[in-house]
Amino acid sequence: MASEHEAEKAVPTDDLLEWPQKDKRRFLHAVYRVGDLERTIKFYTECFGMKLLRKRDIPEEKYSNAFLGFGPEESSFVVELTYNYGVDKYDIGTGFGHFAIATEDVYKMVEDIRAKGGKIKREPGPVKGGTTVIAFVEDPDGYVFELIQRGPTPEPLCQVMLRVGDLERSIKFYEKACGMRVVKTVDRPEYKYSIAMLGYDEEEKTTVLELTYNYGVTEYTKGNAYAQVALSTEDVYKTAEVVRRVTQELGGKITREPGPIPGINTKITSFLDPDGWKVVFVDHADFLKELPKGE
Predict the structure, then answer these.
(1) What integer is the mean pLDDT of 261-283?
(2) In which region does residue 22 sit, left (phi positive, over 0), alpha (psi from -120 to 50) or beta (all else)?
(3) Per-residue pLDDT for 2 more than 50?
(4) Which 3 state secondary structure label does DSSP give 69?
(5) Closest to 273 in 3D by CA, of 203, 130, 174
(6) Per DSSP, which regions of the chain are E strands?
(7) Tens-digit pLDDT profile for residues 27-55
(8) DSSP reduced 3-state for 258
(9) pLDDT band at residue 180, thresholds of 50, 70 and 90?
(10) What is the mean pLDDT of the chain?
């Protein structure tokens, strides 16, 4: 594939930097590790109402995956759970914040979760200084889920929150490298934090990346639990070249050069953002071929 990659390098800079806006992109998966796959599947299906979409076991590599969400993978954002044989506990670290689920009745969902033995971290009620009803719950591995009261939405699995050390730098990075746009910003000096939500559509219609900056905090521990978010692209080679140029300006680095995964042939590229958060771009046509025919 070297010749194809070299061809992409020859694309004029202006055309290349316009590529993220022309590309058709969306959030595919949030990937993270759990200590008991069946326990987490049971919790997510019974407490959150997710569907188990598919499972795969890779005994030669000693791990299993389960994919769960509220809709089919071909059009919805889903979680990809990884269970590594014999590992029952992970360190979530201080940088990962939470996932979020939109529901029409937060109070009812919290009561259902409580009745099934789930841990409630914040009782349902309006946000401080606002009217939106939210709650926070914790899954069996300690991952936090924010529940947000919202009308019917095409994407109930609606947020991934990560903490960053320089919000303006991160905004520029995700705009330039990932083609996202800022859909909402909030500054709360009384609580000493700011947030920016970025995505490919309005906050109520799609999944967003919520970046949080806590005043004066520039570094966080990553732990070994949360892995990455996966996004789709129509051309991993062109996308990787854009990311390479953006990392030269803003930080971060390519961690996997674009190309097919051995054995699967799905083309991907991966990189770290300036804070060390991992992002994977997946060729969308290849991704669709991976899905079971029934999807």
Answers:
(1) 95
(2) alpha
(3) no
(4) strand
(5) 174
(6) 27-33, 51-58, 63-69, 78-84, 96-103, 119-126, 133-138, 144-149, 157-163, 181-188, 193-199, 208-214, 226-233, 253-260, 267-272, 278-283
(7) 999 999 999 999 999 999 999 999 999 99
(8) strand
(9) very high
(10) 93
Give SS3 for 254: strand
Tell me the C-alpha to C-alpha distance, in Å, between residue 262 and each of 75, 103, 238, 259, 268. Answer: 25, 39, 20, 9, 11
Report the b/e string of 7-25 with b at 16+ CB within 10 A. Answer: ebeeeeeeebeebbeebeb
Helices (H), the chain: 2-9, 13-22, 37-43, 106-115, 167-178, 236-250, 284-290
- Helix extents (H) in 90-198: 106-115, 167-178
CA distances from 194 to 140, 160, 182, 185, 276 (A): 29, 16, 13, 7, 19
- Structure tokens given for 267: 């083309």
CB-CB contact of 140 with 43 (8 Å): yes
Question: Which pairs count as long-range contacts for 63-69, CB under 8 Å and 24+ apart, including other chains?
Answer: 64/37, 66/37, 66/40, 66/41, 67/29, 68/41, 68/44, 69/157
Residues 6+ away with beta carbon under 8 Å from 165: 213, 217, 218, 219, 220, 274, 275
Is this structure's pTM higher than 0.90?
yes
CA gap 134, 193 in Å, rounded: 18
Residues classed as catalytic: 98, 146, 159, 210
User: Residue 4: what pLDDT?
Assistant: 47
Tokens encoding 225: 């639990």
Please state the φ and ψ torsions of residue 186, each to the nearest 5 degrees.
-140, 130
Structure tokens at 93: 């670290």
